[in-house]
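Example 4.3 (complexes with small molecules)
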Amino acid sequence: MKAVTWCGTRKVSVDNVPDPQILNPRDAIVKITSTCICGSDLHLYDGYIPTMQKGDVLGHEFMGEVVEVGSGVNAEKVKVGDRVIVPFCIACGNCFYCKRQLFSCCDNSNPNAWLGEKAYGFSTAGLFGYSHLTGGYAGGQAEYARVPFADHQLFKVPETIPDEQAVFLTDIFPTGYMAAEQCNIQKGDVVAVWGCGPVGQFAIRSAALLGAHKVVAIDDGTRVPERLRMAADGGAITIDMRDEYVYEKLLELTGGRGPDACIDAVGMEAHGFTVDAFVDKMKSAAMMATDRPHALRQAINCCRKGGTVSVPGVYGGVVDKLPFGAAMQKGLQFRMGQTHVHKYVPILIDRIQRGEIDPSFVITHKMPLTEAPQGYKMFQEKRDGCIKIVLKPGQ
Ligand code: NAD
Ligand code: ZN
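Answer. The structure with nicotinamide-adenine-dinucleotide bound is encoded below.
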Protein backbone atom coordinates (compact mmCIF):
# COMPACT_ATOMS: atom_id res chain seq x y z
CA MET A 1 0.00 0.00 0.00
CA LYS A 2 0.98 3.66 -0.22
CA ALA A 3 1.92 5.50 2.96
CA VAL A 4 3.56 8.75 4.03
CA THR A 5 6.90 8.01 5.68
CA TRP A 6 9.28 10.09 7.79
CA CYS A 7 12.71 10.26 6.16
CA GLY A 8 14.54 12.75 8.41
CA THR A 9 14.15 16.41 9.37
CA ARG A 10 11.81 18.19 6.91
CA LYS A 11 11.72 15.12 4.68
CA VAL A 12 8.67 12.97 4.11
CA SER A 13 7.84 10.82 1.12
CA VAL A 14 5.06 8.64 -0.20
CA ASP A 15 6.32 5.08 -0.40
CA ASN A 16 5.05 1.58 -1.06
CA VAL A 17 5.12 -0.30 2.24
CA PRO A 18 3.76 -3.74 3.25
CA ASP A 19 0.01 -3.86 4.00
CA PRO A 20 -0.75 -4.04 7.72
CA GLN A 21 -1.73 -7.45 9.12
CA ILE A 22 -3.80 -8.57 12.08
CA LEU A 23 -1.17 -9.30 14.77
CA ASN A 24 -3.36 -9.71 17.86
CA PRO A 25 -6.90 -11.09 18.24
CA ARG A 26 -8.34 -7.66 19.17
CA ASP A 27 -6.85 -5.91 16.09
CA ALA A 28 -8.82 -4.59 13.14
CA ILE A 29 -7.67 -3.30 9.77
CA VAL A 30 -9.18 -0.02 8.60
CA LYS A 31 -9.22 1.15 4.98
CA ILE A 32 -8.61 4.87 5.28
CA THR A 33 -10.93 7.35 3.56
CA SER A 34 -9.73 10.62 5.16
CA THR A 35 -6.60 11.53 7.11
CA CYS A 36 -5.10 14.87 8.18
CA ILE A 37 -1.78 16.56 8.85
CA CYS A 38 -1.61 17.87 12.42
CA GLY A 39 0.49 20.54 14.15
CA SER A 40 1.86 17.62 16.18
CA ASP A 41 3.17 16.11 12.93
CA LEU A 42 5.15 19.31 12.42
CA HIS A 43 7.10 18.59 15.62
CA LEU A 44 8.15 15.28 13.98
CA TYR A 45 8.75 16.94 10.62
CA ASP A 46 10.95 19.59 12.25
CA GLY A 47 12.91 16.87 14.05
CA TYR A 48 11.99 17.80 17.64
CA ILE A 49 10.61 14.44 18.77
CA PRO A 50 13.27 11.81 19.52
CA THR A 51 13.13 8.11 18.58
CA MET A 52 11.77 8.56 15.04
CA GLN A 53 13.22 6.13 12.53
CA LYS A 54 13.57 6.49 8.79
CA GLY A 55 10.61 4.78 7.13
CA ASP A 56 8.16 5.25 10.04
CA VAL A 57 4.61 5.70 8.73
CA LEU A 58 3.18 9.07 9.86
CA GLY A 59 -0.33 10.18 10.74
CA HIS A 60 -2.68 9.99 13.70
CA GLU A 61 -5.88 11.69 12.50
CA PHE A 62 -7.65 9.13 10.33
CA MET A 63 -10.95 7.43 9.68
CA GLY A 64 -12.33 4.88 7.28
CA GLU A 65 -14.01 1.53 6.89
CA VAL A 66 -13.30 -1.67 8.82
CA VAL A 67 -12.17 -4.33 6.32
CA GLU A 68 -10.92 -7.08 8.64
CA VAL A 69 -11.28 -7.97 12.32
CA GLY A 70 -9.34 -10.32 14.57
CA SER A 71 -10.92 -13.34 16.27
CA GLY A 72 -11.09 -11.59 19.66
CA VAL A 73 -12.92 -8.43 18.58
CA ASN A 74 -16.35 -8.06 20.17
CA ALA A 75 -18.68 -8.36 17.15
CA GLU A 76 -21.43 -6.37 18.89
CA LYS A 77 -19.14 -3.36 18.91
CA VAL A 78 -17.19 -3.57 15.64
CA LYS A 79 -17.68 -5.48 12.41
CA VAL A 80 -16.46 -5.45 8.84
CA GLY A 81 -18.12 -2.63 6.88
CA ASP A 82 -18.45 -0.21 9.82
CA ARG A 83 -17.54 3.41 9.12
CA VAL A 84 -15.33 4.48 11.99
CA ILE A 85 -13.11 7.18 13.41
CA VAL A 86 -9.89 6.25 15.20
CA PRO A 87 -8.72 8.26 18.26
CA PHE A 88 -5.03 9.16 17.99
CA CYS A 89 -4.17 7.70 21.39
CA ILE A 90 -4.51 3.95 21.76
CA ALA A 91 -6.38 2.72 24.84
CA CYS A 92 -7.18 -0.80 26.03
CA GLY A 93 -10.37 0.17 27.88
CA ASN A 94 -9.62 -2.02 30.89
CA CYS A 95 -6.62 -0.70 32.82
CA PHE A 96 -6.51 1.55 35.91
CA TYR A 97 -6.26 4.68 33.71
CA CYS A 98 -8.87 3.71 31.10
CA LYS A 99 -11.34 2.97 33.92
CA ARG A 100 -10.82 6.59 35.04
CA GLN A 101 -11.27 7.88 31.46
CA LEU A 102 -7.61 8.94 31.32
CA PHE A 103 -7.26 7.20 27.98
CA SER A 104 -4.04 8.87 26.83
CA CYS A 105 -2.42 7.42 29.95
CA CYS A 106 -3.41 3.81 29.10
CA ASP A 107 -1.00 1.35 30.70
CA ASN A 108 -1.37 -1.41 28.12
CA SER A 109 -0.92 0.16 24.70
CA ASN A 110 2.74 1.16 24.60
CA PRO A 111 5.02 -1.78 23.80
CA ASN A 112 8.03 0.50 24.33
CA ALA A 113 6.93 1.52 27.84
CA TRP A 114 10.51 1.26 29.10
CA LEU A 115 11.48 4.23 26.92
CA GLY A 116 8.67 6.34 28.38
CA GLU A 117 9.61 5.26 31.90
CA LYS A 118 13.17 6.41 31.31
CA ALA A 119 12.07 9.74 29.84
CA TYR A 120 9.08 10.60 32.03
CA GLY A 121 9.04 8.26 35.05
CA PHE A 122 6.00 6.46 33.63
CA SER A 123 5.06 5.67 30.08
CA THR A 124 2.19 7.33 28.20
CA ALA A 125 -0.24 5.43 25.98
CA GLY A 126 0.74 4.27 22.52
CA LEU A 127 0.03 6.83 19.80
CA PHE A 128 -0.37 6.22 16.08
CA GLY A 129 2.51 7.42 13.91
CA TYR A 130 4.26 9.27 16.68
CA SER A 131 7.77 7.90 17.34
CA HIS A 132 9.04 4.81 19.09
CA LEU A 133 8.72 6.53 22.48
CA THR A 134 4.95 6.15 22.06
CA GLY A 135 5.01 2.60 20.74
CA GLY A 136 6.34 2.81 17.19
CA TYR A 137 2.84 2.22 15.70
CA ALA A 138 2.47 2.75 11.97
CA GLY A 139 0.27 5.81 11.43
CA GLY A 140 -2.77 6.59 9.35
CA GLN A 141 -1.44 8.76 6.51
CA ALA A 142 -1.74 5.58 4.49
CA GLU A 143 -4.24 3.47 2.62
CA TYR A 144 -4.71 1.04 5.54
CA ALA A 145 -3.88 0.88 9.24
CA ARG A 146 -3.86 -1.75 11.95
CA VAL A 147 -5.87 -0.68 14.98
CA PRO A 148 -5.28 -2.52 18.28
CA PHE A 149 -8.04 -3.00 20.92
CA ALA A 150 -10.45 -2.38 18.04
CA ASP A 151 -13.66 -2.88 20.02
CA HIS A 152 -12.63 -0.08 22.36
CA GLN A 153 -10.60 2.01 19.95
CA LEU A 154 -13.05 2.41 17.08
CA PHE A 155 -16.15 4.61 17.13
CA LYS A 156 -18.90 4.16 14.57
CA VAL A 157 -19.93 7.43 12.94
CA PRO A 158 -23.56 8.22 12.09
CA GLU A 159 -24.21 8.40 8.33
CA THR A 160 -25.42 11.99 8.76
CA ILE A 161 -21.90 13.14 9.70
CA PRO A 162 -19.67 13.31 6.60
CA ASP A 163 -15.91 12.59 6.69
CA GLU A 164 -15.21 16.35 6.51
CA GLN A 165 -16.73 16.73 9.98
CA ALA A 166 -16.06 13.32 11.52
CA VAL A 167 -12.32 13.15 10.87
CA PHE A 168 -11.71 15.93 13.40
CA LEU A 169 -13.17 13.75 16.18
CA THR A 170 -9.91 11.75 16.05
CA ASP A 171 -7.90 14.57 17.61
CA ILE A 172 -8.21 18.33 17.19
CA PHE A 173 -11.87 18.83 18.10
CA PRO A 174 -11.59 16.78 21.34
CA THR A 175 -8.23 18.47 21.98
CA GLY A 176 -9.64 22.00 21.73
CA TYR A 177 -12.70 20.92 23.71
CA MET A 178 -10.71 19.29 26.52
CA ALA A 179 -8.46 22.36 26.68
CA ALA A 180 -11.55 24.54 27.20
CA GLU A 181 -13.29 22.11 29.55
CA GLN A 182 -10.20 22.04 31.75
CA CYS A 183 -10.66 25.81 32.27
CA ASN A 184 -13.82 25.10 34.31
CA ILE A 185 -15.46 28.12 32.65
CA GLN A 186 -17.80 30.13 34.89
CA LYS A 187 -20.37 32.79 33.98
CA GLY A 188 -18.59 35.99 32.94
CA ASP A 189 -15.19 34.33 32.35
CA VAL A 190 -12.68 35.60 29.82
CA VAL A 191 -10.62 32.86 28.15
CA ALA A 192 -7.46 33.76 26.23
CA VAL A 193 -6.13 31.34 23.61
CA TRP A 194 -2.53 31.51 22.37
CA GLY A 195 -2.17 30.03 18.87
CA CYS A 196 -4.88 30.06 16.18
CA GLY A 197 -3.84 26.84 14.46
CA PRO A 198 -6.45 24.08 14.19
CA VAL A 199 -6.21 23.25 17.92
CA GLY A 200 -6.57 26.91 18.87
CA GLN A 201 -9.58 27.25 16.53
CA PHE A 202 -11.37 24.38 18.26
CA ALA A 203 -10.37 25.69 21.70
CA ILE A 204 -11.90 29.09 20.79
CA ARG A 205 -15.19 27.59 19.61
CA SER A 206 -15.31 25.12 22.50
CA ALA A 207 -14.75 27.88 25.06
CA ALA A 208 -17.72 29.69 23.54
CA LEU A 209 -19.84 26.49 23.57
CA LEU A 210 -18.94 26.01 27.24
CA GLY A 211 -20.18 29.49 28.13
CA ALA A 212 -17.18 31.86 28.09
CA HIS A 213 -18.26 35.50 28.21
CA LYS A 214 -15.36 36.58 25.99
CA VAL A 215 -12.74 34.61 24.09
CA VAL A 216 -9.52 36.36 23.11
CA ALA A 217 -7.30 34.82 20.42
CA ILE A 218 -3.60 35.61 19.96
CA ASP A 219 -1.39 34.84 16.94
CA ASP A 220 0.93 36.45 14.44
CA GLY A 221 -1.06 38.74 12.13
CA THR A 222 1.75 39.11 9.59
CA ARG A 223 2.56 35.44 9.24
CA VAL A 224 -0.94 33.96 9.54
CA PRO A 225 -3.58 36.70 9.12
CA GLU A 226 -6.10 34.12 7.88
CA ARG A 227 -5.92 32.32 11.23
CA LEU A 228 -6.80 35.47 13.14
CA ARG A 229 -9.67 36.05 10.69
CA MET A 230 -10.97 32.53 11.29
CA ALA A 231 -10.73 33.12 15.05
CA ALA A 232 -12.75 36.33 14.67
CA ASP A 233 -15.34 34.42 12.60
CA GLY A 234 -15.58 32.06 15.57
CA GLY A 235 -16.49 35.00 17.80
CA ALA A 236 -13.08 35.77 19.32
CA ILE A 237 -11.56 39.19 19.91
CA THR A 238 -8.14 38.96 18.27
CA ILE A 239 -4.72 40.23 19.29
CA ASP A 240 -1.88 40.41 16.79
CA MET A 241 1.21 39.44 18.78
CA ARG A 242 3.32 41.69 16.50
CA ASP A 243 1.56 45.01 16.87
CA GLU A 244 0.10 44.93 20.27
CA TYR A 245 1.71 44.28 23.57
CA VAL A 246 -0.20 41.14 24.49
CA TYR A 247 -0.19 41.68 28.28
CA GLU A 248 -1.38 45.32 28.02
CA LYS A 249 -4.11 44.40 25.57
CA LEU A 250 -5.33 41.53 27.77
CA LEU A 251 -5.49 43.86 30.78
CA GLU A 252 -7.52 46.31 28.73
CA LEU A 253 -9.99 43.57 27.79
CA THR A 254 -10.39 42.28 31.35
CA GLY A 255 -10.73 45.44 33.39
CA GLY A 256 -7.12 45.18 34.53
CA ARG A 257 -7.52 41.71 36.07
CA GLY A 258 -6.15 39.35 33.43
CA PRO A 259 -7.96 36.43 31.76
CA ASP A 260 -9.61 33.87 34.05
CA ALA A 261 -8.14 31.09 31.95
CA CYS A 262 -5.26 30.95 29.47
CA ILE A 263 -4.94 28.18 26.89
CA ASP A 264 -1.54 27.45 25.32
CA ALA A 265 -2.45 26.01 21.92
CA VAL A 266 1.02 26.74 20.54
CA GLY A 267 3.31 24.18 22.18
CA MET A 268 7.02 23.60 21.86
CA GLU A 269 7.69 25.57 18.66
CA ALA A 270 6.51 29.04 19.73
CA HIS A 271 8.09 32.08 18.16
CA GLY A 272 8.11 35.60 19.49
CA PHE A 273 9.71 39.02 19.38
CA THR A 274 11.04 39.37 22.92
CA VAL A 275 14.44 38.50 24.40
CA ASP A 276 13.28 35.20 25.91
CA ALA A 277 11.94 34.03 22.52
CA PHE A 278 15.24 34.95 20.87
CA VAL A 279 17.22 33.01 23.51
CA ASP A 280 14.92 29.98 23.04
CA LYS A 281 15.54 30.09 19.30
CA MET A 282 19.31 30.25 19.68
CA LYS A 283 19.37 27.49 22.29
CA SER A 284 17.17 25.13 20.30
CA ALA A 285 19.18 25.77 17.13
CA ALA A 286 22.35 24.87 19.06
CA MET A 287 20.61 21.72 20.41
CA MET A 288 20.89 23.14 23.94
CA ALA A 289 17.14 23.15 24.54
CA THR A 290 14.28 20.86 23.54
CA ASP A 291 11.29 23.21 23.68
CA ARG A 292 10.58 26.89 22.95
CA PRO A 293 8.05 27.85 25.64
CA HIS A 294 7.56 31.56 24.89
CA ALA A 295 3.75 31.31 24.66
CA LEU A 296 3.54 29.27 27.87
CA ARG A 297 5.59 31.86 29.75
CA GLN A 298 3.33 34.61 28.48
CA ALA A 299 0.18 32.65 29.41
CA ILE A 300 1.48 32.18 32.97
CA ASN A 301 2.37 35.86 33.31
CA CYS A 302 -0.92 37.13 31.86
CA CYS A 303 -3.25 34.78 33.75
CA ARG A 304 -5.21 36.40 36.58
CA LYS A 305 -4.51 35.36 40.18
CA GLY A 306 -6.11 32.01 40.98
CA GLY A 307 -6.79 31.39 37.28
CA THR A 308 -6.20 28.31 35.13
CA VAL A 309 -3.49 27.65 32.58
CA SER A 310 -4.61 24.86 30.24
CA VAL A 311 -1.95 23.37 27.97
CA PRO A 312 -3.00 21.30 24.95
CA GLY A 313 0.20 22.41 23.15
CA VAL A 314 2.74 19.59 23.09
CA TYR A 315 5.98 19.82 25.08
CA GLY A 316 8.57 17.08 24.91
CA GLY A 317 11.44 17.76 27.23
CA VAL A 318 12.72 20.05 29.94
CA VAL A 319 11.29 23.55 29.65
CA ASP A 320 13.72 26.42 30.13
CA LYS A 321 13.03 29.50 32.30
CA LEU A 322 9.46 28.70 33.18
CA PRO A 323 8.18 31.43 35.54
CA PHE A 324 7.16 28.95 38.20
CA GLY A 325 7.48 31.63 40.88
CA ALA A 326 4.72 33.64 39.20
CA ALA A 327 2.56 30.52 38.91
CA MET A 328 3.04 29.60 42.58
CA GLN A 329 2.66 33.12 43.94
CA LYS A 330 -0.52 33.77 41.93
CA GLY A 331 -2.02 30.41 42.90
CA LEU A 332 -2.54 29.21 39.33
CA GLN A 333 -3.96 25.85 38.40
CA PHE A 334 -2.30 23.89 35.61
CA ARG A 335 -4.23 21.42 33.46
CA MET A 336 -2.66 19.64 30.51
CA GLY A 337 -2.11 16.42 28.67
CA GLN A 338 -2.48 14.43 25.53
CA THR A 339 -6.21 14.36 24.92
CA HIS A 340 -8.38 11.58 26.36
CA VAL A 341 -10.11 11.43 22.99
CA HIS A 342 -12.38 8.44 23.73
CA LYS A 343 -14.08 10.37 26.54
CA TYR A 344 -15.11 13.21 24.23
CA VAL A 345 -16.17 11.45 21.01
CA PRO A 346 -19.78 10.66 22.08
CA ILE A 347 -20.23 14.15 23.60
CA LEU A 348 -18.99 15.86 20.45
CA ILE A 349 -20.97 13.63 18.07
CA ASP A 350 -24.06 14.84 19.97
CA ARG A 351 -23.01 18.47 19.66
CA ILE A 352 -22.45 18.07 15.90
CA GLN A 353 -25.80 16.34 15.49
CA ARG A 354 -27.56 19.10 17.44
CA GLY A 355 -26.06 21.58 14.95
CA GLU A 356 -24.04 23.44 17.60
CA ILE A 357 -20.87 23.26 15.52
CA ASP A 358 -19.76 22.19 12.06
CA PRO A 359 -16.11 21.11 12.48
CA SER A 360 -15.41 21.29 8.73
CA PHE A 361 -14.99 25.08 9.07
CA VAL A 362 -11.27 24.47 9.70
CA ILE A 363 -10.47 22.79 6.35
CA THR A 364 -8.53 24.96 3.92
CA HIS A 365 -7.00 22.27 1.67
CA LYS A 366 -7.90 18.80 0.43
CA MET A 367 -5.41 16.76 -1.59
CA PRO A 368 -4.61 13.19 -2.59
CA LEU A 369 -2.36 11.25 -0.19
CA THR A 370 0.35 11.25 -2.85
CA GLU A 371 0.69 15.05 -2.46
CA ALA A 372 1.48 14.81 1.25
CA PRO A 373 5.10 16.04 0.87
CA GLN A 374 3.88 19.31 -0.68
CA GLY A 375 1.17 19.47 1.99
CA TYR A 376 3.67 19.15 4.84
CA LYS A 377 5.86 21.86 3.33
CA MET A 378 2.96 24.27 2.81
CA PHE A 379 1.55 23.65 6.33
CA GLN A 380 4.97 24.02 7.96
CA GLU A 381 5.69 27.25 6.08
CA LYS A 382 2.12 28.51 6.78
CA ARG A 383 1.79 29.31 3.06
CA ASP A 384 -1.32 29.67 0.86
CA GLY A 385 -3.57 30.38 3.83
CA CYS A 386 -3.07 26.79 4.95
CA ILE A 387 -4.81 25.98 8.24
CA LYS A 388 -5.89 22.33 7.90
CA ILE A 389 -5.18 19.77 5.22
CA VAL A 390 -7.28 16.67 4.65
CA LEU A 391 -5.54 13.94 2.63
CA LYS A 392 -7.60 11.51 0.58
CA PRO A 393 -5.98 8.08 0.00
CA GLY A 394 -6.99 6.36 -3.20
CA GLN A 395 -7.62 9.59 -5.14
P1 NAD B 1 -0.09 24.83 14.29
O1 NAD B 1 1.38 24.75 14.16
O2 NAD B 1 -0.91 24.83 13.03
O3 NAD B 1 -0.51 26.14 15.10
C1 NAD B 1 0.30 26.78 16.05
C2 NAD B 1 -0.01 28.28 15.97
O4 NAD B 1 0.68 28.94 17.03
C3 NAD B 1 0.46 28.93 14.67
O5 NAD B 1 -0.64 29.60 14.05
C4 NAD B 1 1.56 29.90 15.13
O6 NAD B 1 1.62 31.09 14.32
C5 NAD B 1 1.09 30.21 16.53
N1 NAD B 1 2.13 30.77 17.42
C6 NAD B 1 3.47 30.53 17.43
N2 NAD B 1 4.06 31.23 18.43
C7 NAD B 1 3.07 31.93 19.05
C8 NAD B 1 3.04 32.81 20.15
N3 NAD B 1 4.15 33.12 20.80
N4 NAD B 1 1.86 33.37 20.52
C9 NAD B 1 0.70 33.06 19.86
N5 NAD B 1 0.66 32.20 18.81
C10 NAD B 1 1.84 31.65 18.42
O7 NAD B 1 -0.52 23.63 15.24
P2 NAD B 1 -1.92 23.01 15.76
O8 NAD B 1 -2.29 21.87 14.88
O9 NAD B 1 -2.93 24.05 16.01
O10 NAD B 1 -1.41 22.39 17.14
C11 NAD B 1 -1.06 23.26 18.21
C12 NAD B 1 -0.37 22.48 19.31
O11 NAD B 1 -1.27 21.52 19.86
C13 NAD B 1 0.86 21.70 18.84
O12 NAD B 1 1.86 21.75 19.84
C14 NAD B 1 0.32 20.29 18.72
O13 NAD B 1 1.35 19.33 18.87
C15 NAD B 1 -0.61 20.27 19.90
N6 NAD B 1 -1.59 19.18 19.91
C16 NAD B 1 -1.81 18.58 21.10
C17 NAD B 1 -2.73 17.57 21.22
C18 NAD B 1 -2.98 16.95 22.55
O14 NAD B 1 -3.49 15.85 22.63
N7 NAD B 1 -2.70 17.65 23.64
C19 NAD B 1 -3.41 17.13 20.09
C20 NAD B 1 -3.19 17.78 18.87
C21 NAD B 1 -2.26 18.79 18.78
ZN1 ZN C 1 -3.07 15.61 15.80
